[in-house]
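Hi V.,

You were right to ask for the full record rather than a summary. Here it is.
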Amino acid sequence: MVKFLIILLGVGWLLGQLIRYFLRSKLAQLAKQVNEAAREQQRAQQHASRPKDSVVVDYIPKEDLEKRKKDIEGGEYVDYEEVKE
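Predicted structure:
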């Protein structure tokens, strides 16, 4: 009888751990999907609110940004090319 109770408790504990593991993984997966959907919705809103001919920079690498800051002192420098019409 004692052996049966110990086995029953062990199996119950093991099932509890497995259920907890699978619930956590499913909740993490659901959170990831919700987060991705929110990102897509935000991108769509930004794209819709943008004027047609505007320039938008989504990402500037940190190395490039740090290099620009080291090379240029005394203000912001903007590279440009002359356009002949």
